[in-house]
Amino acid sequence: MKHELPIVAIVGRPNTGKSTIFNRLVGKRRVIESDIPGTTRDRIYEKTMMRDYEVMLVDTGGLEIEVKSDIESDVQSQTRIAIEEADVVLFVIDARQELTSLDFAAADMLRKANKPCVLIANKCDNGNGEDKAFNLYELGFDKPVQVSAIHSRGFDEVLYHVAGILEELHFVKKEEQASDDGSEGVRIGFFGKPNVGKSSLINAFLNEQRVVVSDQPGTTRDTTDSLIFYNDQKLTLIDTAGLRRRGKVNEDLEYYSVLHCFKSIERSDIALLILDASESISKQDLHVVQYILEQGKGLIVVLNKSDLVIHKRSDEKTFRSYIAKKIHFVPWAPLLLVSASTKKNLNMVLDYALRIAEVRKKRIQTSTLNAFMQKIRYRHPPMSRAKVQPKIYYGSQVSIEPPHFVFFVNDRDSFHFSYKRYLENRLREEYGFEGTAMSIEFRNRRRDDSKAKF
User: What is the C-alpha to C-alpha distance for residues 397 and 400, in angstroms, rounded to an integer?
Assistant: First the structure.
């Protein structure tokens, strides 16, 4: 019996509805859907259930015979790799159109790959295309499964066929597998402007060409998840589209890429802000940092391509000073100088990420926190220009990931905004909250609260 996760790849020529089918099978809008051929460029992975089997579903770029650019060539390579990896292939055809030479070429490729294949006749909407679906027998496969991805019709039969193949291949059903928490481990998101090397770093970590890499900005449009194990711990690396300035986001595809990127920040545990050592820090980089802070994530600033511009210690000192001034509001975020091409300091990135993931789970006992607060209160009591003298009665850590502290006070409006920053700095100094955002809240104490003040 095979205990590994079976891989199901969706392939076909461009604009046959592969991404829409992918989204229907995973039950969410995981991939950008568009009528523009070539929207999907990377292999997009997502776990999902197909009847009794948990599978890794893979969306791919459209199969083409003639390629007109290096990016299109890379896309075709990605699709061929997906076919080689797959245990089952879903071959998608547009049932409304006549078969083309590209369809027959794709069919020949799949037969040579000798992979179990389910032929899917998509766009059988309200009877449209169902008559033409029978012409698909010319491709040499079994009876096509007629579906309408846009109306979510016919997918029960798709699941039935895939489950039957997986049973024949002796894969283990989900309920028969050894217990697994099913988690993604520590989720590390790669964020930054286009062309700073996010995809190159992902490939360097994976030691394979998992995502398309190009000098052309905007190559990555979807978010791509890759699972690795490091020091016996599970990590999910999340590659994202580059974030442009708002004035540059004027196409639907770009809008949805940015939307997916912000959603990726929300589901990341640790965010890597990737900077190009040969470029200056932009306002867009600062906007990304601000959103990471708002979402309460861990943060590591990663200076990529450092091998090209930093040749001596004085250069490194200059760069660190420059970045510290530009991103002065996150002095607690580690700054790492790396190189995707030479793999310099890549392990250090993962080491810091794991360390920060543990820090985000740290919880300070209320008695310990209040003993510490009493000490720093005498060192630096809160001051105010208001008539009410601000007082802190007691505090408590109410949650983790990120650490969230609530301090009960007599009048929260009487505290100067800088006192929160002072408390944050002292807490980081005392308890080592390195690399993670944290939240401090002043809350007015209720009258019936009998706890004594410091």
Answer: 8
Bridge partners for 68 per DSSP: none
CA–CA gap between residue 59 and residue 170 (Å, rounded): 24
| SS3 at position 438 | coil
Residue 67 has φ and ψ, to the nearest 5°, of: -115, 140
Strands (E) in 314-370, as ranges, are 335-337
Q: Please check whether the two domains, 7-176 and 186-359, share a CATH topology.
A: yes
Long-range contacts from 339-345, C-beta under 8 angstroms, 24+ separation: 339/304, 339/305, 339/306, 339/307, 339/308, 340/197, 340/200, 340/201, 340/203, 340/204, 340/304, 340/305, 341/200, 341/204, 341/305, 341/307, 342/307, 343/204, 344/306, 344/307
Single-letter residue type at 245: R
Tell me, yes or no, if the pTM score tops 0.90.
Answer: no
d(CA 297, CA 262): 12
CA distances from 449 to 29, 283, 295, 411 (A): 47, 45, 31, 14
Quick: pLDDT tens for 389-408. 888 899 999 999 999 999 99
Which element (helix H / strand E) includes 322? helix 313-326
152-164 tens-digit pLDDT: 899 999 999 999 9
The model's pLDDT over 88-99, given as tens digits with 9 standing for 90+, comes to 999 999 888 888
**Nearest residue to 352 (alpha-carbon basis) of 430, 424, 298, 294:** 298
All residues at 6 or more sequence positions from 384 whose CB lies less than 8 Å from its CB, including other chains: 390, 414, 415, 416
Q: How far apart are CA 112 and CA 307, in angstroms?
A: 43
Count of C-beta atoms within a 10 Å radius of residue 43: 22
Give the domain ranges of the chain: 7-176, 186-359, 366-444
> Distance between CA atoms of 350 and 129, rounded to whole angstroms?
50
With 0-12 / 13-18 / 19 or more C-beta atoms within 10 angstroms meaning exposed / middle / buried, residue 48 is middle
Q: Domain 186-359 classified CATH 3.30.470.30?
A: no
CATH of 7-176, one of 3.40.30.10, 2.40.10.220, 3.40.50.300, 3.40.190.10: 3.40.50.300
Give yes or no for residue 230 having a pLDDT over 50. yes
Q: Which CATH architecture fits 366-444?
A: 2-Layer Sandwich (3.30)
Average pLDDT over residues 51-67: 77
- DSSP H/E element including 402: none
Amino acid identity, position 230: Y
Residues 312/340, Cβ–Cβ less than 8 Å: no
